[in-house]
């Protein structure tokens, strides 16, 4: 019996007053639409964004924020070279890597959290 049916969202931690930077980076640069937060959660700050497959990326305000340098969301794209060129045009540093057997880049969000963008998806097989 499968108990879980999928991944709903990933939350990235951010400092207080992160909303303008989140909207610029995830909305304007990466092109993700902002989603409305439930009123009870909106009072906490942060932003939610939609991904094309229906999953969500949440930016949540965290007291005593520290950027995550290892743990990270892995986002997908169809053409990594286009994403790389787009990031370069916006002055966003990123590093290419294929160590995991798939073309990918690593970059930081506006607060120093690590992000990964993968072309296609990581190959996986049940163990």
Secondary-structure topology with pairs:
Blueprint lengths: L8 E6 L4 H11 L4 E2 L3 H4 L4 E4 L5 E6 L12 E4 L2 H10 L4 E4 L6 E5 L5 E6 L8
Parallel strand pairs: 1-4, 5-8
Antiparallel strand pairs: 2-3, 3-4, 6-7, 7-8
Entry keywords:
Glyas_Bleomycin-R_OHBP_Dase, 2,3-Dihydroxybiphenyl 1,2-Dioxygenase, domain 1, alpha/beta, 127 residues, 29% strand, VOC_core, Glyoxalase/bleomycin resistance protein/dioxygenase, dioxygenase, 20% helix, globular
Task: Give the name of the CATH architecture.
Answer: Roll
User: What about the largest sheet?
Assistant: 4 strands, mixed
Through-space gap between termini: 17 Å
The CATH superfamily bears the name: 2,3-Dihydroxybiphenyl 1,2-Dioxygenase, domain 1
Strand/helix succession: EHEHEEEHEEE
What's the overall geometry? globular
Task: Tell me the name of the CATH class.
Answer: Alpha Beta
State the helical fraction: 10-25%
Gyration radius, to the nearest Å?
15 Å
Q: How many runs of DSSP E, i.e. beta strands?
A: 8
User: Taking strands numbered 1, 2, ... along the chain, how are they ordered across the largest sheet?
Assistant: 1-4-3-2
């Amino acid at each position: 019996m499968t108990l879980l049916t999928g991944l709903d969202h990933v939350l990235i931690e951010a400092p207080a007053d992160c909303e303008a930077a989140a909207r610029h980076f995830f909305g304007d640069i990466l092109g993700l639409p902002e989603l409305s937060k439930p009123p009870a959660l909106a009072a906490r700050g942060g932003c939610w964004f939609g991904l094309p497959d229906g999953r969500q990326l949440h930016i949540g305000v965290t007291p005593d924020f520290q950027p995550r340098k290892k743990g990270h969301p892995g986002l997908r794209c169809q053409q990594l070279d286009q994403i790389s060129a787009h990031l370069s045009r916006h002055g966003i540093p990123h590093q290419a890597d294929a160590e995991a057997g798939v073309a990918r880049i690593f970059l930081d969000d506006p607060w120093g959290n690590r992000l990964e963008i993968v072309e296609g998806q990581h190959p996986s097989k049940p163990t």
